[in-house]
């Protein structure tokens, strides 16, 4: 492994930004945002990009579980230190329950590989930014009564994940805290940040452009996309199931805002972000308002229902609002009227005409 100290006098901005899971919708939004700031980007994904990335981006096709592959990413743009990592690659909650070992390897050991790369190959003058999307799945409730009684929860309680995905995200957050706070304490004789670790616990995400795969909040986007395609949708949770959601553009704005925030403004490393918290039936109502032909039936799946029932109804995102000015652009009605419905209708009209 090359020693980062061999890099001649890097100045802020000279470094390399690594985006894992870059082939997803978040990656496709973040990479152009980074290029506009003049960053050199390594866009890593399990699959090769279907269309080439623009100039300034090197594609790296491989697996975050592969330590030597991850280590090699720092050499793909010449001899530049790692300035930031946006670690988006993950196995989502339903897929993770189907294959817990894979989920642990990707979500925990994969994160460790990236943290270790950032710590070893980071900018020498300041700790590299490490941004990890986490999830409301880190929280867990024993019963619907407890979930409903809790109301909007802050970041510090109810950390009792009931899925291997939630446990993995919690472990990844803690690994981030370790690399940010204690790593190399022995060598340097005192605490020193090896990475500037920041994380956002996302709610379910609604996109007009993509349908996620392997998540448990997927009933929200699936309902919308099925209706726009003229298909019947059999919702896998009860109509009264309620968890927080936000739109994909708001989720991307949140990542960009936390990444850009001055370190001195941050009172914590891990933040809730909220926008709206509809029941499944309320989502169906919004879909039907804009797509009156929507046909939605309910066929709850016991295992997936139990996961949703263990997640909070709503989150308190006061710390994100105070520290880095978080404020969602879309409430539920605005999300459907201004973004989801017009865009999803146009999308399927374009593919069927
Ligand atoms: N949306 C994710 C999932 O359903 C949770 O963060 O797995």
Description:
The radius of gyration is 20 Å and the shape is globular. Helix 8 packs parallel to helix 10. Strands 3-2-1-4-5-6-10 form a seven-stranded parallel sheet, with helices on both faces. Strand 1, helix 1 and strand 2 form a beta-alpha-beta unit. The N terminus is likely disordered. It is α/β, with parallel strands linked by helices. The protein folds into two domains: 226 residues, NAD(P)-binding Rossmann-like Domain (Rossmann fold), CATH 3.40.50.720; 91 residues. The site of serine has 10 residues, from loops.
SSE layout:
Layout: E1 16-20, H1 25-36, E2 40-45, E3 57-61, H2 67-72, E4 82-87, H3 93-98, H4 100-121, E5 129-135, H5 144-150, H6 164-181, H7 185-188, E6 196-202, E7 204-206, H8 219-228, E8 232-235, E9 245-247, H9 248-260, E10 270-272, H10 280-290, E11 295-298, H11 302-310, H12 318-324, H13 332-352
Parallel strand pairs: 1-2, 1-4, 2-3, 4-5, 5-6, 6-10, 7-9, 8-11
Helix pairs in contact: 1-9, 4-6, 8-10, 10-13
Entry summary:
By secondary structure, this protein is of the alpha/beta class.
């Amino acid at each position: 492994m090359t020693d980062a100290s061999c890099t001649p006098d890097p100045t802020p901005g000279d470094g390399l930004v690594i985006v894992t899971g870059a082939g997803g919708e978040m990656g496709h939004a973040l990479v152009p945002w980074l290029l506009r700031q003049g960053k050199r980007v390594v866009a890593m994904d399990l699959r090769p990009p279907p269309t080439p990335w623009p100039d300034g981006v090197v594609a790296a096709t491989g697996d975050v579980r592969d330590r030597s592959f991850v280590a090699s990413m720092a050499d793909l743009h010449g001899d530049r230190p790692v300035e930031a990592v946006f670690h988006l690659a993950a196995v989502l909650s339903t897929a993770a329950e189907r294959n817990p070992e894979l989920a642990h390897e990707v979500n925990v050991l994969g994160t460790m590989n990236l943290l270790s790369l950032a710590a070893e190959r980071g900018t020498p003058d300041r700790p590299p930014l490490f941004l990890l999307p986490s999830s409301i799945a880190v929280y867990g409730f024993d019963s619907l009564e407890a979930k409903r009684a809790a109301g909007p929860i802050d970041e510090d309680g109810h950390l009792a994940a009931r899925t291997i995905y939630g446990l993995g995200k919690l472990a990844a957050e803690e690994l981030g805290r370790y690399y940010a706070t204690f790593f190399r304490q022995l060598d340097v004789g005192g605490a020193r940040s090896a990475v500037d670790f920041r994380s956002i616990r996302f709610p379910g995400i609604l996109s007009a452009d993509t349908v996620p795969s392997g998540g448990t909040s997927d009933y929200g986007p699936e309902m919308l996309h099925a209706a726009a395609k003229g298909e019947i949708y059999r919702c896998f949770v009860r109509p009264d199931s309620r968890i927080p959601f936000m739109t994909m553009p708001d989720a991307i704005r949140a990542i960009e805002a936390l990444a850009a925030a001055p370190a001195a403004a941050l009172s914590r490393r891990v933040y809730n972000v909220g926008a709206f918290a509809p029941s499944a039936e309320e989502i169906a109502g919004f879909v039907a308002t804009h797509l009156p032909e929507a046909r939605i039936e309910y066929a709850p799946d016991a295992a997936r229902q139990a996961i949703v029932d263990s997640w909070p109804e709503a989150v308190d995102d006061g710390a994100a609002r105070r520290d880095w000015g978080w404020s969602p652009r879309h409430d539920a009605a605005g999300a459907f009227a201004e973004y989801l419905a017009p865009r999803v209708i146009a999308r399927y009209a374009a593919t069927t005409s």
